[in-house]
Amino acid sequence: MTRVLVPTGALGLGYDRAALERGVANRPDIIAVDGGSTDSGPSYLGRGVSKYSRASTKAEWRELMAARAAAGVPLVIGTAGTCGADSAVDWLLDITREIAQETGTQVKVATLKSGQPAARVKAALAAGRLRALPAAPEISDAVIDQCSNVVALAGAEQIAAALATGADIVIAGRTTDTAIIAALPITRGDNPGPAWHGAKVGECGALATTHPNSGVIQIDFDANGFTVEPMAPEAAATPYTVSAHMLYENSDPFILHEPGGYLDVTGSDYRALDARRVRVEGSRWVPGRYTVKLEGARVAGYQTVGLAVIRDRRYVRNAHVWAEDVVARVTEKIIARMGIAAEDFTVEIRLIGIDATLGGLETRKTLPVEVGVLGILTCPTAEQAAEAGKILNPYLLHHPLTEDEPMPTFAFPFSPAEMQRGALYEFCLNHVMELDDPMSAFVLETHEVGHG
């Protein structure tokens, strides 16, 4: 049997400290935590930085390092620094060094880097070892060269290799969310079907329970299945909460693809052992060729945004007409005065409070008291975006609905009303790369950190 303790869905989100203490007291074999994902868009991968604050990350990582020492087991994090880029691995390694120095401890750290040099990806493309996933964009050598960061999602094999170094702490770059949980049970001979299924259930901590924000969850793996138990006393795992998690961030409720095969839960049985624990058996692992998913981000332009607020009832009622006229006039002026071709820039206005989230899918027709007007300008260069933002500015402040009415004045929440967002990134890879050796696309190193 292998016991995995998952303290939270992502480092930096917080968790129940008392529940973590209970989990440590239950003598886990490993503590596994996710560090991020692509949920927040391509900018973090493009820039190679963390979404979460350094202060929050350091405070929670310090507590998890202490929990690891108390339990005497490895601590592993996947997709370090939100995006899993090599620079994010180095970032968390630096934080680990700081904590070790401040606490007077010495630990062995293994770093697993997932960054892919352009030459490797282009060689795979030329050799026919790159396969597009559904809705993948067209790629070429030029597109690959434009990527500021490309990462491969590590699986259980790479995490197992890192654990085999005897490291106290494993800081992994981009991994599948499940790999950090499934690796040790599989290595120790537990059934790989339940290992991958239990890892999927536990990837987001207590999200698969009745109290998602409590964070801490314990999963016991064995030869026949797995058992899920939340560590917060008010939380419960039920057959519904556990089975439903196969629908989370997954296009198929029964199949989950991972490096080297896929999980099939068609025949899985979910049974409540008591009011808080669920037992799952019947999950099946189907081996296949070894591929790793690639993620890449590149600069797609530069943005300036402007913000105003309109409150006049007539303007609120006619906000769409007003916004369409502003977009048309600003677009015309940018073409005429800046010499940018229409296809090379965009002017967009989102009406916050009306339909900024859903756009044309919005069904609610009630009008708000006021509307936030968010103007978004995207251009090939930062200088052009800044100039375009200044062209938009007077329209957000004074543009009338008709030519024969007094000039209105809307509210700017700050001055200047426009802000430079800098580079706009986009994902440009949604492919899998075939590997003969699972470690051939990853770099594993060990570090002695701190002092005794």
Question: How does this structure look, described?
Answer:
This protein has 452 residues and is of the alpha+beta class. It has 2 domains: 2-114 and 153-290 and 435-450, no CATH class; 299-428, Alpha-Beta Plaits, CATH 3.30.70. Helix content is 31%, strand content 28%. It has a 10-stranded mixed β-sheet with strand order 12-13-9-8-1-2-3-7-4-19, sandwiched between helices. Strands 5, 6, 15, 16, 17 and 18 form a 6-stranded antiparallel β-sheet that branches. Helix 1 runs parallel beside helix 3 and helix 3 packs across helix 4 (86-103). The mean pLDDT is 95.
The residue fraction in helices comes out at 25-40%
| Discrete helix count | 13
- Please report which band the strand proportion falls in: under 5%, 5-15%, 15-25%, 25-35%, 35-45% or over 45%: 25-35%
Radius of gyration, rounded? 25 Å
Total strand segments: 19
Overall 3D geometry? globular
Regions with little confidence, pLDDT below 50 for 5+ residues: none
Average pLDDT, rounded to a whole number, is: 95
Structural class: alpha+beta
Terminal CA distance? 33 Å
- The main sheet orders its strands as 12-13-9-8-1-2-3-7-4-19
Largest sheet: 10 strands, mixed
Number of discrete domains: 2
